[in-house]
Design goal:
Strand 4, helix 7 and strand 5 form a beta-alpha-beta unit. The N and C termini lie far apart (47 Å). The protein has twelve helices and eight strands. With 432 residues, it is an alpha/beta fold. It is globular.
């Protein structure tokens, strides 16, 4: 075991104040709620807290096509009526609307994931958290499923500069199709997605038979699940598969997408996971003691999303959180019981995943893994330079030493900057 983990946490209050529209299920406001739980439980005192840089267009174009990035940069709600052809081409519309400060929103959440990867690469932390990231559906040339820029792909590309092999794990209820597609033909990234599959469920991909192609054959793993899967079934399958994946693939770093729409009672989800079950997956991945980049993702019952990601921040810090939520700016959202546990109500769905079905999936996945004789070796090239150079010299810092207060103050947001108050567009919106 290594000594206590050094954890970097990325947050910018501006990311929670954007508004997708009155009837849109994506509420970035959930990020403010998550952050205020982190603050109220005083978890921020155990981490280094950073405001991410806003990713430059040239950084976004490391994966996305430059014309798509340029269009996202240019389009506004006031001008979108002039660009109907481009909107169709780039798949902007009902699911992926054009809203105020869209490009800045993308720059912030992508910047957080890129910064997280760079800190891991430079061994300045062991675990990096960006709850605003995890937008796994975005494609090279188009938006998809509420996602515009695929920060996960950009973070993985960054990690590949230093690591021969990167493992991507996705526990969102939706298939991590954008990340899988980006790395479908390479053995340098293994993607493992646990998700609902069938019944025309978005995005419609992620069959167990999708295993990668060319050099990437057998390096895409899909675990297609049915409605109502519970903690016991999910965590048993997760641990069996991930343990074997890590043993076989021997990744140098792990990226874990913690979409919270796999929780019971999610507005768009259909699984039956409790926060304990969801966070058990995080706890299990942490035990491998590999450089770990953790992001958010989906999650549309926002008070449960906030509960989940606060608990998982605690898990990453080896800190058990009391069930009673401390006073904070968003406390009213957790009424009437003000507890971290999800009130169950009548939301328990029948588990349609039979033991024989789950066993067959596991057998097929492990069989595919057997086709990988050993972890692929990679001839590493000279490391390309980082695009973004922070205004302090990380190379001269000894990662084993605490930074002096002045240096920390230059990087860390002041506490009073965390409180958006009335700037939150979604504050008084009806969630119906």
């Amino acid at each position: 075991m290594r000594p206590k983990d050094r954890i970097s946490y990325f947050y910018d209050g501006d990311v929670g104040s954007v508004y997708f529209g009155p009837n849109h299920p994506m509420k970035p406001h959930r990020l403010c709620m998550t952050h205020h739980l982190v603050l109220s439980y005083e978890l921020h005192k155990k981490m280094e807290v950073y405001r991410p840089h806003k990713a430059y267009p040239v950084e976004l174009a490391q994966f996305h096509s430059p014309d798509y990035v340029e269009f996202l940069h240019r389009i506004t709600p006031d001008t979108q009526h002039l660009f109907s052809n481009e909107l169709a081409k780039y798949n902007l519309g009902e699911d992926c609307p054009v809203f105020e400060n869209l490009f800045e929103f993308c720059q912030i959440y992508a910047g957080g994931t890129i910064d997280a990867a760079r800190r891991l690469n430079n061994q300045l932390c062991d675990i990096a958290i960006n709850w605003a990231g995890g937008l796994h559906h975005a494609k090279k040339c188009e938006a998809s499923g509420f996602c515009y820029i695929n920060d996960l792909v950009l973070g993985i590309l960054e990690l590949l500069k230093y690591h021969a092999r990167v493992l991507y794990i996705d526990i969102d209820v939706h298939h991590g199709d954008g990340v899988e597609e980006a790395f479908y033909f390479t053995d340098r990234v293994m993607t493992v997605s646990f998700h609902k599959f069938g019944d025309m469920f978005f995005p419609g991909t992620g069959d167990v038979k999708e295993i990668g192609g060319k050099e990437g054959k057998f390096y895409a793993i899909n675990v297609p699940l049915k409605d109502g899967i519970d903690d016991t079934s999910f965590t048993r399958l997760f641990k069996a598969i991930i343990a074997k994946v890590v043993e076989t693939y021997q990744p140098g770093a792990i990226v874990l997408q913690c979409g919270a729409d796999s929780l019971a009672g999610d507005r768009l989800g259909c699984f039956n996971l409790s926060i304990d079950g969801h966070s058990e997956c995080v706890r299990f991945v942490k035990k491998f003691n590999l450089p770990l980049l953790v992001t958010g993702g989906g999650g549309y019952t926002k008070e449960n999303v906030a509960r989940c990601w606060a608990v998982e921040t605690g898990v990453l810090l080896d800190t058990e959180l009391p069930n009673e939520i401390p006073e904070n700016e968003y406390i009213k959202y957790f009424a009437p019981d003000y507890s971290l546990r999800i009130p169950r109500g009548n939301i328990i769905l029948e588990n349609l995943n039979s033991k024989s079905y789950l066993s067959a999936i596991k057998v097929q996945v492990l069989e595919n893994l057997r086709n990988i004789q050993h972890a692929p070796s990679v001839q590493m090239q000279e490391v390309p330079p980082d695009f973004y150079i922070p205004d302090f010299d990380e190379d001269e810092q000894n990662p084993d030493e605490r930074m002096d207060q002045h240096t920390q103050d230059k990087q860390v947001q002041r506490d009073d900057e965390y409180y958006d108050g009335d700037n939150d567009n979604d504050h008084n919106m009806d969630d119906a």
